[in-house]
Design a protein that fits this description.
17 helices; seven-stranded mixed β-sheet; alpha/beta; binds nicotinamide-adenine-dinucleotide
């Protein structure tokens, strides 16, 4: 186990070749399965098979692929409890979270794609406004890239890859997925379900492996990469992708602020802060990582958060009474410990929690509320990705907008107020891919909504029509309706032609109308001009 973590801590490019990974239940330490890692040969072979299968898969047409997604949806619905249990075993998250933040998200994304893939991806007429080009018929054709590589993390090991895989597949791509080394088994379940629904074997491949397998996939013959993970890995991938101009979507980390205004309902906002910071043991890209509360409400809000946090039940996610499970790994717990220690060294106060719950297991960490934090502390600047809720007070709206934007990340944010207009006005000033007024995290479950960030939180979008559009190249198809006619603007230029074209510009753009009519008459001669 120690060797396993040591290997993970090394930069992927320097990793020694390891041939097997273990999937471990973080709540119990039980080894759920051991798998061979895909090496360079397996990665290249999978990409080659996916490439060979892609033309036929594209030939199926969107409507046939949608039928298959509907079948997948019904299979998943029938197996919801089994899949949710498997997710809980591999990640430690409470069973009900596996149902709601993983299985439900995938069922609904399937619904969205089944309803919208055809209308969003079909050919579209492109009318021309320029009168000189009216004789041409324009169309937008959306073509699949070919083979999409997907690299995914462990924190939502089913919903993240499944939503991306389905969008890629329905658009006519084939897919090679490298899931996190912590959660390969649930990715293989996704593969089984899709194959049972009728997806041909070579159309979708799951390659278990550690970072090195991901690095090989990035350098392989894929046509686009959708990566979800940390900023540091995202940066490394972007550098490699730059060499071949491989298009990438990067869904990276976050440091989401929660802004609680002076008119907010303290009871509702404190419950939201506690859930938003501790759901999935704080290991959500959209977690509340920083909380700013108006100074007028600070003392009461902090007390409410601490009191509610003390009531949380920590344990095995399969126990129906559990609110919070273990963290995924020793490596993640160490980051959390370092952030808590750094904040204490700089004057923060731990109101509850603050350390491991070793009696439950090595990676259980007590949900922790920190008060008197500031922007000199790592916990307010770097992604913690653990069950920590740091709370800071602010004086006025200008200050809180400045604090919310004083951050390298820009994934999401939330604003809490009884006045929605006021909330939305602040939301518009916050630099983030999503800002929710009076809710946290649930945007990820809205299949219509785009998901993605600004600044270090990444590039591009998944989910909704924007996620689907990432899976296709836009081709402009132009067809001239007058094939026997030479174009007015071809060679054979002359002084007369220059004057006629001056008048032509006036014909289109001049005001008032009478100038345009005169100009049209003066430019008409160009129609009969001799061209080469
Ligand atoms: P990670 O970057 O360590 O790993 C992500 C994936 O990349 C894994 O499959 C890993 O094996 C692979 N990988 C590692 N090195 C690689 C390399 N050099 N080349 C190619 N692939 C490589 O991230 P993680 O710890 O699995 O996930 C947690 C991070 O993901 C957090 O920062 C979190 O915020 C972020 N995240 C973002 C989103 C989002 O939608 N924006 C969603 C979930 C998680």
């Amino acid at each position: 186990m120690l060797l396993f973590y040591t290997v993970l801590a090394m930069p992927a490019d320097l990793e020694p070749a390891i041939s097997r990974i273990a999937s471990v239940n973080p709540a119990t330490g039980e080894v759920l399965g051991e798998l061979d890692c895909a090496g360079p040969t397996e990665v290249r072979a999978a990409v080659a098979r996916a490439r060979a299968a892609q033309p036929e898969w594209n030939g199926w047409g969107i409507r046939n692929r949608v039928k298959l997604l509907r079948r997948f949806q019904q299979l998943l619905l029938a197996r919801k409890a089994d899949i949710a249990r498997r997710i809980t075993h591999e990640t430690g998250k409470p069973y009900v979270e596996s149902l709601l933040t993983e299985v439900l998200v995938v069922l609904d994304a399937t619904r969205f794609l089944a309803e919208n893939a055809y209308p969003l991806l079909r050919e579209e007429k492109l009318p021309h406004g320029n009168p000189a080009l009216k004789a041409k018929s324009g169309r937008i054709v959306r073509e699949p890239y070919g083979v999409i590589g997907i690299i995914s993390p462990w924190n939502y090991p089913f919903s993240i890859p499944a939503t991306e895989v389905m969008a890629a597949l329905v658009a006519g791509n084939t897919v090679v997925l490298k899931p996190s080394e912590f959660t390969p088994l649930i990715a293989l379940e996704l593969q089984s379900l899709l194959r049972e629904a009728g997806v041909p074997n070579d159309v979708f491949h799951v390659l278990p492996g550690e970072g090195a397998a991901g690095a090989t996939l990035v350098k392989s013959e894929i046509d686009k990469l959708v990566f979800t993970g940390s900023v540091s890995t995202g940066r490394r991938i972007a550098q490699v992708a730059a060499e071949t101009l491989l298009p990438v979507v990067l869904e990276l980390g976050g440091k989401d602020p929660m802004v609680v205004l002076d008119d907010a309902d303290i009871d509702v906002a404190s419950s939201a802060a506690v859930w938003g910071a501790f759901v999935n043991a704080g290991q959500a890209c959209l977690s509340v990582e920083r909380c700013y509360i108006h100074q007028k409400l600070y003392a009461r809000f902090v007390d409410a958060c601490a009191e509610k946090t003390r009531k949380l039940r920590i344990g095995n996610g399969m126990d129906p009474a559990t609110d919070i499970g273990p963290m995924i790994s020793e490596q993640q717990v160490r980051i959390v410990e370092a952030h808590v220690a750094d904040s204490q060294n700089h004057g923060a106060r731990v109101l509850t929690g603050g350390g491991r719950l070793r009696e439950l297991g090595p990676t259980f960490f007590a949900p922790t509320v920190l008060a008197e934090v500031n922007h000199n502390m790592r916990v307010m600047r770097e992604e913690t990705f653990g069950p920590i809720l740091p709370i800071m007070s602010f004086r006025d709206e200008d200050e809180v907008v400045r604090l919310a934007n004083d951050c390298d990340y820009g994934l999401a944010a939330s604003v809490w107020t009884r006045d929605r207009n006021r909330g939305e006005a602040i939301a518009r000033q916050i630099h983030a891919g999503t800002v929710m007024v009076n809710d946290v995290l649930s945007c990820f479950s809205i299949s219509e909504a785009p998901h993605g960030g600004v600044k270090a939180s990444g590039l591009g979008r998944t989910h909704g029509r924007w996620g689907l559009e990432e899976m296709v190249r836009v081709k402009y198809l132009d067809s001239d309706r007058l094939p026997r006619m030479k174009k007015i603007w071809w060679f054979g230029y002359s002084d007369d032609f220059a004057r006629e074209m001056e008048s032509f510009l006036d014909t289109i753009f001049a005001r008032p109308w009478r100038v345009r009519v005169g100009a049209a008459l003066r430019s008409a001669g160009a129609l009969w001009r001799r061209k080469l």
